[in-house]
Amino acid sequence: MKIVIIGGVAGGASAAARARRLGEDAEIVVLEKGGYPSFANCGLPYYVGGEIEKRDSLLVAPIKMLKERHRLDVRVRSEATQIDRAAKEVTVKNLETGGQYVEAYDKLIIATGASPFRPPIPGINSERIVALRDLNDADRMRELATSAAKRAVIVGAGFIGIEVAENLARRGLHVTLVELADQILPPWDREMVLPLEKHVREEGIELRLGSSATKFDSDEKGLHITLSDGEVVEADFGVVCIGVRPDSKLAADAGIECGARGGILTSNHMQTNDPDIYAVGDVVETVCAVTGDPIQIPLAGPANRQGRIAADHIFGRDSKYRGTQGTAVVGVFGKTAAMTGLSEKVLRAKKTDYLKVFLHPTDHAGYYPGAQQMLMKLLFAPDTGRILGAQAVGTSGIDKRIDVIAMAIQAEMTVFDLEEAELCYAPQYGHAKDPVNMAGFIASGVLRGDQPIVQADALTNAEDLFLLDVRTEGEFAKGHIPGATNIPVEQLRERLAEVPKDRKIAAYCQVGQRGYLATRILLQHDFDAANISGGYRLWAIENGKL
Amino acid sequence: MKIVIIGGVAGGASAAARARRLGEDAEIVVLEKGGYPSFANCGLPYYVGGEIEKRDSLLVAPIKMLKERHRLDVRVRSEATQIDRAAKEVTVKNLETGGQYVEAYDKLIIATGASPFRPPIPGINSERIVALRDLNDADRMRELATSAAKRAVIVGAGFIGIEVAENLARRGLHVTLVELADQILPPWDREMVLPLEKHVREEGIELRLGSSATKFDSDEKGLHITLSDGEVVEADFGVVCIGVRPDSKLAADAGIECGARGGILTSNHMQTNDPDIYAVGDVVETVCAVTGDPIQIPLAGPANRQGRIAADHIFGRDSKYRGTQGTAVVGVFGKTAAMTGLSEKVLRAKKTDYLKVFLHPTDHAGYYPGAQQMLMKLLFAPDTGRILGAQAVGTSGIDKRIDVIAMAIQAEMTVFDLEEAELCYAPQYGHAKDPVNMAGFIASGVLRGDQPIVQADALTNAEDLFLLDVRTEGEFAKGHIPGATNIPVEQLRERLAEVPKDRKIAAYCQVGQRGYLATRILLQHDFDAANISGGYRLWAIENGKL
């Protein structure tokens, strides 16, 4: 058995190691176009920023180890330029010597990954503009950042853009972050990242949302970036982080089927339309684990699992890829945003019915020092209560809650199951009613009709609503939703006469708990009442008041 | 509807708040024997130690709030002394005035909790000995600790004993911790807490394992504790933390059925044998969510959920308690131990078939600064792969992994599902292959026959085994399992002739990964090989070498 693997990072490296464990006698050739197999590409921004000090620490599986321990025939600077499926051969170009040769295979695994997208903007190929895909790019960015450079412009505020922004700022540069969308981190829903945008700005990053670069002019003085509103931003260098595109040309040229998003199509065994050719990682189009829809999401975890599965199938195992959930996390200046499953914007685009609830729990018991409030959102099916997605943003305990819900989504659990989750509790770690339980309580209360809700983002133009602020007078005085009437929940029972019976009541408090109690009181007195999910705090976030 | 709730902490308080939300018109009386309803009992050790500075912060739901917001008729220092089921009345003693009265109920919820056990040891009722159940106890302990006291003895090294030990040490006291078992934290398996015992000792705690107090002598000089080995330990005061017993006497006297462990028996609606009487929290015997066996575990999360469920059922809802998983976490001097599901010792006592694997992953990617190694154990069913339990000990990311596995246990997932878990990954948060995935890979490999394993604790007297250390010569020289032969995995393929064909090979490396590869190599060359789960590191922990 001879296996050729094109691409030696993440999915390719996982496939190679797994293939070796299953096939001690197999000949395994790994063709890596770059200089390093199995490098830690998720660490690149932190190497640029200096948080990761040593370049070598990014080389998680050095060539020597792959060769000696796993007996992999790893060839770096080796580009596969053509696949001859009939002959079962790959043409390989040695990028050092320029020489070409042909390598036969019994089974081929394509793990070519994805490349940073460079849109055809005038001047984008300037030497002053870099992307961040591999160690060479990181080296180049470090050079640029450690020179006399004072200002950088980053185009694209996705994961990489945000991480690079933080890391360049850490090096002392003034960073302007340009993003076409009206928010940073487009996979998240907009309201969820508003607190992060505030935080990022406070850390000195200049955000230009709803904006794009239309022209790059370079000269010896620097880079002059013309934005879509006509303004010209000055910088010493620019970084383009506007997403990646699957490197599937090699496969497509050989007649391997690709999807509408450009990714290679595979079975759940990661097998392409050619049964001797597999594809894994960022180069493949996969399916959403929640909906089964085709998706193209570049993530390291799925790439690694797909690599294992391809190797398994080559060696006769029945391993199947279950699809990608889209679990992701990003850190920026000490804050964390995490998500799993579908976002509201995706659900809306799909015209899928969904419900959403918001909450603001603390990461651990409020009575123990250091508790930090987070913003959490849960999306679920109105009929069955099945969990569709979750997002959380805050300082601590964010990834934990999203990981727990990711597991619940994998198990196709419902919001009723979240109510019953039994999670770790001691005051420095969580709550007797963990944020995951609380999300379950709230969502289940909505489904059971105990807690009808109104969304904060639906209040505009909802003039028929009677807005009832049930916080204290002091809280109300500090800020409230315009038009609201204040009756503290403690006084509500005695002051029901002040609440109209002929209008729908939208009650709210700071985070949602007193609003819920007020809603319960009103409903039981035959008012048409609902709680504003996420309370004043969410409304304030959404309306720039916080 | 008139509901009387006996006990206003955790389960009782949850039941009261839920009952109010469901029944705005209900009369709800909460009888609390102590001075404070709804106080944070899990915070008491940290108030003793000063980490929680203000006593008031432990009063999570002050009486004023319960009265004004929830309209609960909360009566503190009010002890229910008798239940007359026929008349549906409770006799209440006012502990302030000594007066007695009778309170009628339609529905009664017993949430009397559990009391620290005080075994009949001579002298145990000394003024110099305290337990830790409520705020008064905490006040008393603070007084004792802030006096001229220099030495304390704690009897019992369970959750509370360990937390109190840390907190008294934080106050500058020399602490001796006496525990009857041969380990601290008896709910965990012994090998899992060995690293913690080392850590606790390094922090200055004197551990006396396998030891008990047989006599307490008090005089003006202090407390003289005679241990089971005859030694007398001197201290200024003592703390007794040898577990709790359900406060079920009131219920039992009224003919409410109790189980063998002393806890009140209930249906999954938390209903006792009297349909008008419910019981929740530490006073009830519940069932294990994994096995269905009766268990008595005092935990705050379950108590809170049970309170909700009892109130739900009173108001005609079909809510059901699913049983207790035993998810628990404890912190001590910056380290964390967490567990969920069954321990090996419980499985062994039940004579249930199980398999176990060990691993030592880091909390986040090794290439990102600050990664900390943990010890993790996964227990699962040999036939189906169903997850039975998990434990982890380390510095960071411990509660997260156990919470994820707790969710998997709740969903009755298998180790094969853990392989596919899609969890948050960025280098500062986790791994592309998270510890949860790794646990799944290893356990699944065992079940699929890819990775036969040998347990480190089974090596004694296993002289038929050929111990093969596949680490580097340098690692081998620093310490190895006695009798092992060293062939680095990188050289194994060339040196197979040195490995006997007629004996079973137990390969090992530092943590298990190279040992796994070596096992794969050997198996494919027709050796009878297995990997020592957890590697040299676990063996070293178990044998006091680390």
Can you put this structure into words, describing what you see?
The structure is a homodimer of 546-residue chains. By secondary structure, chain A is of the alpha/beta class. Chain A folds into four domains: 2-41 and 57-113 and 245-314, FAD/NAD(P)-binding domain, CATH 3.50.50; 129-242, FAD/NAD(P)-binding domain, CATH 3.50.50.60; 334-448, FAD/NAD(P)-binding domain; 453-542, Oxidized Rhodanese, domain 1. Chain A has 16 helices and 31 strands. In chain A, strand 5 and strand 6 (100-104) form a beta hairpin. In chain A, helix 1 (11-22) runs parallel beside helix 8 (300-314). The first copy, chain A, is globular. The mean pLDDT of chain A is 96. The interface between A and B is large, with 88 and 88 residues.
Shape of chain A: globular
- Rg of chain A, Cα atoms, Å: 26 Å
The CATH superfamily of the largest domain in chain A turns out to be FAD/NAD(P)-binding domain
Proportion of strand residues of chain A: 25-35%
User: How would a crystallographer describe the biggest sheet of chain A?
Assistant: 5 strands, parallel
* Main sheet: strand order of chain A: 3-2-1-7-19
SS-based class of chain A: alpha/beta
CATH class of the largest domain in chain A: Alpha Beta
Distance between the first and last residues' Cα of chain A:
62 Å
**Arithmetic mean of pLDDT of chain A:** 96
Domain Rhodanese (chains A, B): 461-544
InterPro entries (chains A, B): FAD-bd_OxRdtase, FAD/NAD-bd_sf, FAD/NAD-binding_dom, FAD/NAD-linked_Rdtase_dimer_sf, Pyr_nucl-diS_OxRdtase_dimer, Rhodanese-like_dom, Rhodanese-like_dom_sf, Thiosulphate_STrfase_CS
Organism (chains A, B): Blastopirellula marina
GO molecular function (chains A, B): oxidoreductase activity; thiosulfate-cyanide sulfurtransferase activity
